[in-house]
Amino acid sequence: MENVHLAEEEDDLYSGYNDYNPTFDSEDLDNDAGFQQAVRTSHGRRPPMTAKFPGTAVGARPLGTSFGVSAEILNNCLLLTGACHSSKMQPFVTAVQKARYNEASFKHLSSCRLDEKIKIMEKKVNDLIEESCMAHSLGASQLALEKAKEAGRKERALVRQREQSGSADHINLDLTYSVLFNLANQYENNDMYPEALNSYQVIVKNKMFSNAGRLKVNMANIYFKQKNYPKAIKFYRMALDQISNTHKEMRIKIMQNIGVVFVRMGQYSDAITSFEHIMSESPNLTVGYNLILCYYAIGDKERMKKAFQKLICVPLGIAEEDKYIPSNDDTHTNMVIEAIKNDQLHQMERERKALAEKFIMTAAKLIAPAIEPSFAAGFDWCVEMVKSSQYVELANDLEINKAITYLRQKDFNQAVQILKTFEKKDSRVKSAAATNLAALYSLENDYDQADRYADLAMNADRYNPAALINKGNTVFVKQDYEKAAEFYKEAFRNDSSCTEALYNLGLSYKKLNRLEEALDCFLKLHAILRNSAQVMYQVADLYELLEDPQQAIEWLMKLISVTPTDPKVLVKLGELYDSEGDKSQAFQHYYESFRYFPSNIDVIEWLGAYYIETQFCEKAIQYFERKALETYKDIHRKFPENVECLRFLVRLCTDMGLKEVQEYATKLKKVEKMKEIREQRVKSGREGSARGRKEGREGSAGSGEFHSVSTSAYIDQQNYYSGHSSQGTGTRGERLSAKIRSLPSSHEPYETSSQRELDAPYVDPLGPQMERPKSAARKWQEDDDFADEELGDDLLPE
Questions:
Q1: CB of 537 within 8 A of CB of 569?
Q2: Is 301 contained in some domain?
Q3: CATH number at residue 424
Q4: Inter-residue contact 673 to 780 (CB < 8 Å)
Q5: CA–CA distance, 35 with 46 (Å, rounded to integer)
Q6: Degrees, nearest 5: CA angle 221-359-457
Q7: TM spans, by residue (predicted)?
Q8: What pTM does this model have?
Q9: 686 with 733: CB under 8 angstroms?
Q10: Does pLDDT of 790 surpass 80?
């Protein structure tokens, strides 16, 4: 009891608890020079500080703090600095030991706070990496790169912080790897290939990163994009060497990349080696298809066949379609099937099957003409192989492709014959074949047959949009536009991606003068086909019909941005600007149209009139010369042997400095040569006729009435073929000689010739073919064949 001290009434038991003692301030320990000196050395200590503790009735109480410092540490601090509360002084050595203990405690406190700060910085770096990846997934490549760079800066600051705190051994290598890898990826996504390669190189060269050698695949991909194929091969092989055989799938993919690079380099034998190894180890559709392409490139028929057989034997690894057919008995099973019928797994299976069918069909169409003497035999072989595989339904598609190949070769009879064999097949194939037959007969303008097969295709498959479009086309040709529009609308309802149905529907509304509805169709179609020139033209034409020339001009300008060299569109623009009174814009577009197609007489005439209006007559002359040139060209196409026309063309081309002058001069020379041959033939025939008549007169004088009658009949026959009445041989010969002499020679100016005489029909004066002299006839025939051979191509209409 003697040690018990009763509290006096005036004492406050809780006084002093809110007093602040700077001894326990740990906020600025990093900046406290004395504390840092004490931490670094075992003998240094801060200047002594005394703390005044409030007295209590119970004795000294530990001071409560909010810093998490234990009572024991506070008591040690009290022993160190609060000597006034002890009646006996402790030895100096004890005080030094207590100081060391306090230094360790503060070091632990500082370390805890540093670790917390580092964790916060690491979290910020991870957040930036995640934000970078998300930005790339949303298509914001530039933002993704900026986030990746910021993550790199913060990660380097974190490393420096650890080095300064003496904890460099605890650097988070995974975080460093993630930062560098993401930065390299974002550089590559932004096509900054040198920077990406540098970032990958930093990772690959750092031995502290395990399995970093795999990133050489990424580096090889960059070299492939840069078309540096030898270096791509080198890095693919380096990556392949660093991947163990346990990672079989990754090794297969790298070998596939190596084969593709060899294909790009044209080294098909090396590519075949890689693809054959893959097909023997782990066959897949893509590699099998590429192997067929390589065999086709080197022309190896037998190996093409073997590769095709391997391709159709590649397992797809998908479930049978029967799995998704509901049964009538089990309601629960039917509900499950309905739920999984369109799930992502089934969609993936359908996509894989579609890809396989695409590869097989393409490969068959490619190798069919190469593996057999004829493409038909090649198709037949492919069909037989497919029928014995898991792709039995593709056999009919191959037969249809065979018919289409006949169509490309313009062998319509064979195509029709093959397609007609499908009339008794199942509905899907029958509909496809009938659809092709309807289109074929439409191209041949046999709309009755086209209508028949369109009906057949619709009856086989009412939901076939192509069949409905063909039916609508046959009705459209018969000008029943309302009914045609109904078929087009039904086709569009069955397949909303059928752009042909929407286009034809717009045309039907346009024919029905329902311009607003037609415009709506073409505007919808423009939203699907943004760069379709036909759609843009229809929209512009409809705006013109709706008397909105400004909108029409705007759409034609859009069309010009897609097809800038279309002369008809430029003429249309010129017409619209001319109707609006803007002559300068009209002239610009008419002139551009003339540049791309200088043979449009309407354009030439408008330009000539424009220069006359603006009083530039010299320029107008050039366009009227061009108009005259085009007129004579048109005459020449219709009358290729008209010498006068050719002379005009030579003269005009010479005056205008055109390169065509040589072409027309050559033609003129040939035609004049032909005319000269004809003149010789006429002369020879005239001399032969004169000799014949002379001999006939002599013979008739000595042999009597019979010879006189036969000679008279011969003369009448000659007069019939010459187109003249019987007037005497001498008069006809003089007339022919005068006509020949009146023809201008090749060196005379073309104005001297008589158009009436040149255009007169040529009459053969030699009578029937059987009575011509053989030598002269043979010579004429040979000369005529020579002329036709040289002039044949030039005489074709343009």
A1: yes
A2: no
A3: 1.25.40.10
A4: no
A5: 7
A6: 140
A7: none
A8: 0.54
A9: yes
A10: no
Residue 422 maps to a domain: yes
β strands within 476-535, DSSP E: none
Give residue 516's identity as a one-letter amino acid code: E
665, 650 in Cβ contact below 8 A?
yes
Close Cβ partners of 209 (under 8 Å, ≥ 6 residues apart): 173, 177, 203
How far apart CA 199 and CA 187 sit, in angstroms, is 9
Is 343 in contact with 319 (CB distance < 8 Å)? no
636's tokens: 């020449």
| Residue span of the structural domain in which 457 resides | 415-527
Determine whether 384 is exposed, middle or buried from the number of CB atoms within 10 Å of its CB (0-12, 13-18, 19+): exposed
Evaluate whether 243 touches 251 at the Cβ level (below 8 Å): yes
pLDDT digits over 276-297, tens only? 999 998 899 999 999 999 999 9
In a domain, 117, yes or no: no
| Cα distance between residue 505 and residue 469, in whole Å | 10
- For residue 749, what pLDDT is reported? 37
Question: Environment class of residue 222 by beta-carbon count within 10 Å: exposed (0-12), middle (13-18) or buried (19+)?
Answer: buried
Segment 165-214, tens digit of pLDDT: 777 667 788 898 999 999 999 999 999 999 999 999 999 988 888 878 88
Distances (CA, A) of 129 to 182, 497, 662: 7, 40, 72
Q: Alpha-carbon torsion 235, 238, 243, 245, what sign?
A: positive
Instruction: Using only the alpha carbons of the chain, give its radius of gyration.
Output: 49
Dist CA 601 CA 603 (whole Å): 5
Q: Nearest-CA neighbor of 516 among 493, 546, 538, 489?
A: 546
Count of all residues that appear for the chain in the document: 798
End-to-end C-alpha distance for the chain, whole angstroms: 135
Q: CA quadruple 111, 115, 120, 121: dihedral positive or negative?
A: positive
| Mean pLDDT along residues 55-72 | 40
CA distance 402 to 581: 57
Residue that has been written with the tokens 């179609």 in this structure: 525
Please say whether the beta carbons of 161 and 180 come within 8 A.
no
Backbone dihedral region for residue 387 (phi beyond 0: left; psi -120 to 50: alpha; all else: beta): alpha
Identify the band that residue 761 occupies on the pLDDT scale cut at 50, 70 and 90: very low
Cβ–Cβ < 8 Å for 697, 715? no
Three-class SS state of 463: coil
With helix as H, strand as E and coil as C, how does 236-270 read?
Answer: HHHHHHCCCCCCHHHHHHHHHHHHHHHHHCCCHHH
pLDDT tens-digit map of 22-63: 555 655 666 666 666 666 664 444 455 444 444 444 444 443
Residue 278 is encoded by which pair of tokens? 């893959």
Q: State the angle between helix axes of 583-596 and 601-613 in degrees (0 to 180), rounded to the nearest 10.
A: 140
d(CA 420, CA 459): 16
Q: Which residues of 522-535 are buried (b: 16+ CB within 10 A; e: fewer)?
A: beebbeeeeebeeb
Cα dihedral 323/326/330/331 (nearest 10): 130
3-state secondary structure 592-631: HHHHHCCCCHHHHHHHHHHHHHCCCHHHHHHHHHHHHHHH
Q: How far apart are CA 223 and CA 200, in angstroms?
A: 13
Number of H helices, E strands in the chain: 35, 0
Q: Give the chain's domain count.
A: 1
Rounded to 10°, the helix 412-420/394-408 angle is 160
Say if residue 221 is exposed, middle or buried (CB neighbours under 10 Å; 0-12, 13-18, 19+).
middle
In a domain, 491, yes or no: yes
Q: Please give the C-alpha separations between residue 619 and each of 578, 622, 629, in angstroms, as whole numbers.
A: 20, 5, 16
**Local confidence band at 19 (pLDDT 50, 70, 90 cut-offs):** low
Does 68 score more than 50 pLDDT? Answer: no
CB 465 within 8 A of CB 498: yes
